[in-house]
Amino acid sequence: MSEKQTSTGPLAGIKVLDLSRVLAGPWTTQILGDLGAEVIKVEQPGQGDDTRRWGPPFLDDGSKDAAYYLCANRNKQSVAINLADPRGAELIRQIALDADIVVENFRVGGLAKYGLDYASLSEINSKLIYCSITGFGQDGPYKDRGGYDFLIQGMSGLMSITGRPDNEEGGGPMKVGIPISDLVTGLYSAISILAALAHRDRTGEGQHIDMALLDTQVALLANQASNYMNGGMIPRRLGNEHPNTVPYQDFSCSDGDILVALGNDRQFRSFCELIGRPDLPDDPRFIDNGHRSPNRKALQDEMRPAIAKWKSDDLIAAMEAAKLPGGRVNEIPDILADEHIAARGVIKDMVRSDGTPVKVLGYPGKFSKTPADYRRAPPRSGEDTRDVLTDVLGLSEGQIAALVEAGVIAEKLH
């Protein structure tokens, strides 16, 4: 049984019914939970969220939950209800009666047969904000396809601009090292839900939000898509180089690589002076960014020998003193141990209901009045079933026991 804690976040008092699994949906609801909403996560008895088994690594405790699951499921209560059983679906409908938000990521139309789609639930709760997350949206020729992050990264064009150029060793399309399409869809979904809450505050109306991974990832093409739509430039893979701003890439020092991110002509001139090549900004090929970009290879040939004479720590320190943006390529353990990350309080220590400690990455926004809070560690599957059915629906011990006996609910997976 989870300890009851009162939220202090800006969404305190908002109730979320989470019918999602894997990442895009759970990422959405975790954001809402971090901001203070009460989130009830519904999982299939005997199975739970798929990501509980996406390991190794796994927690060395009775749950054997994967570390992957822990990244997206804090600040939630877990109930194990079989929604395919009419009695289970009815329990979920009763929870939805008092909910402000529903988030689901079933295939298009997949919840209608259980009476848990937007049309059905909005009839009993007209103020409900219902967010559906799918690979391709609720309409369009691809709507019935299954959508997964890797597939979306490829179809959206993202992989065509990620990785080394084809003519270099290791060249070819490459996915991003995190499930970026899922994560960004979660962010856009949370933003959209907050906008719908603002509309409801003004009008009293709930609404349906249709979120698609492909739509979101295409929207995230940003400057690369604009380069093509408004300039006719077809974006290509450039490795660590920037398509527009030069130089904005990695360079090799005598003892390792560093990152140089120069955003304007003034910074370029200052950096050239720093590395002992003050002549470069006066070269007609490099006089401004408009000339440097088409002549980037020639510029790199001039800069690399000068940069290679430096030790990486020395050049980074010199750039910092000159207020020029630069740094090193950290590995994950490096950045998680960084003193700045510690000072910012990014890593949070939590304890599960059975006493198992877990570490999570906290919500990045810093609120001066209503900060995000961390009330519940990622729950064991179904551990809050009894609490929710008692506190939210007012079921008796006898009713709960009968539902357990019938296999409609489970109090724990493990």
UniProtKB/TrEMBL annotation:
Alphabetized InterPro entries for the sequence? CoA-transferase_III_domain, CoA-Trfase_fam_III, CoA-Trfase_III_dom3_sf, CoA-Trfase_III_dom_1_sf
Write down a Pfam family by its short name.
CoA_transf_3
Supply the alphabetized keyword list. Transferase
| One of the record's GO molecular function terms | CoA-transferase activity
Annotated PANTHER family: SUCCINATE--HYDROXYMETHYLGLUTARATE COA-TRANSFERASE
State the name under which the record lists this protein.
Answer: CoA transferase
What is the species of this protein?
Sphingobium herbicidovorans (strain ATCC 700291 / DSM 11019 / CCUG 56400 / KCTC 2939 / LMG 18315 / NBRC 16415 / MH)
